């Protein structure tokens, strides 16, 4: 432990933990997790078949990618998420901005959109399968339905929060309504839209896995269901790890995108 | 009605619909003129309808009865001829200072070269020449208000409307900004209407003070600070020391007290 933990107590009431302490704590909790896992599987406390050792899971993850063409499944999953998510954004962002800018537009769409939000997207799976068969369409449709209504509402709420003074400033500078929306409201709300997209992308991953587990022969979820048939718990766990890693990766990518797009949000004083 | 008044407020009343289907009479039958190239200060206790009157001049609110005339025409909505500066910061955070100042000209189709030149001129005028490439989030409160003022002036309004523009600033910065406004008024010949509840600010800036009483907002008194002898004096300390400053301040304090609110 470092010297500052000697001078101050480790558990300080409502005082921020230092960088070192946070890193130490984060590594610590994961070390304990893997420690317990390794211990349990090596001492035979748990059934090797149901809970394979972590080293075995990592080995089969490597094997999946190196020898079994798992990368193809991963790419299919990624393209499903990104494709459906992009389509949802193309509709939700303009619509949400319009709804947040014009109460008349909100009055038209809000009753419709908010009703759909109460319908869990997976409840559409059976009907989507009947309508679209087993190709890509039902999966994309599920992701689309699962994401779009929340995204519209988030974008609308953020748009409404754009301060009235900004709008009025633009009006008194001689801006027309369309100019106010395009040149003031939209750029003002854009950072929040990107944050909303980041949150919704995480949700899209959830629906993807559901779609692939229920009705797919390709993708990460389908691989996991295949593995289940052959009692390959190590491969199921590999799938979980890869999904988690991808989720984290996309989240970091969005955070980086946000920093890159909005340098003016970084305060230098 | 004088020949050279640019804004005429004619029997203007405004009532707002409030909760319970009731109406609140915020402004009651107010009439006054704002002379061209003058600084007119709207003074009164808070809640007396100063902002409402200013917003009707801007075209952001519509009078319930009466009319606001600019250059002889009734105001019908906001327009480029009446620029507005708010108390809250209104800098467009995604644009540099330069682009903020260019904004009005850009949406009004001023060619790029002229835009750049005018923006540079007004950025310099408000003392932000060195910060033209900075983002507003990197500036202090006073500097952000300077951006808002430069942005409005660069758009070439006939009237500059300001609603407690320095209310959020600390005393020292507010003082500097008030002196800046005298300087700007002298250099640009822009008519200004300034809302404030700060007596000192009113006396220092005003060519004419329009005092409103509250609930409902009525015109109580129009006051010309004669002691300045029609001059604009850019040094606040100097103004405070002039004969007659104290008397006027005492008079305004009395008016404020009569309104039963905070006296200065
Ligand atoms: N949009 C509005 N809706 C309802 N009441 C309002 C509205 N705007 C102002 N008022 C009321 O009108 C009165 C005058 O307000 P305002 O013009 O903001 O006063 P001031 O700027 O002098 O403080 C206040 O009582 C205020 O509550
Ligand atoms: Mg006000």
Automatic annotation (TrEMBL), chain A:
Listed under GO biological process in this entry are:
transmembrane transport
The reply to whether Transmembrane helix figures as a keyword in the UniProt entry is yes
Membrane spanning residue stretches: 21-40, 81-103, 204-224, 236-257
Q: Which UniProt keywords apply?
A: Cell membrane, Membrane, Transmembrane, Transmembrane helix, Transport
Q: Give the species.
A: Antarcticimicrobium luteum
Gene Ontology CC: plasma membrane
Major localization listed first in the record, in broad terms? membrane
Q: Does the keyword Transmembrane helix apply?
A: yes
UniProt record similarity statement: Belongs to the binding-protein-dependent transport system permease family.
InterPro entries from the UniProt entry: MetI-like (IPR000515), MetI-like_sf (IPR035906)
Name of the protein this chain belongs to: ABC transporter permease
Q: What does the UniProt entry say about where the protein is found?
A: Cell membrane
Task: Give residue ranges for domain ABC transmembrane type-1.
Answer: 74-258
- Which PROSITE patterns does the UniProt entry name for this protein? ABC_TM1
From TrEMBL, chain B:
Enumerate the UniProt keywords alphabetically: ATP-binding, Nucleotide-binding, Transport
Superkingdom of this entry's organism?
Bacteria
This one is known as ABC transporter ATP-binding protein
Q: Which residues form the ABC transporter domain?
A: 7-241
| Entries under PROSITE patterns matching the protein | ABC_TRANSPORTER_1, ABC_TRANSPORTER_2
Pfam family for this entry, one:
ABC_tran
The keyword Zinc appears for this protein: no
- Keyword Transport in the entry? The reply is yes
Give the family from UniProt.
Answer: Belongs to the ABC transporter superfamily.
Cite the PANTHER family for this sequence: ALIPHATIC SULFONATES IMPORT ATP-BINDING PROTEIN SSUB, TAURINE IMPORT ATP-BINDING PROTEIN-RELATED
Origin species: Antarcticimicrobium luteum
Example GO molecular function term? Answer: ATP hydrolysis activity
| InterPro entries noted in UniProt | AAA+_ATPase, ABC_transporter-like_ATP-bd, ABC_transporter-like_CS, ABC_transporter_ATP-bind, P-loop_NTPase
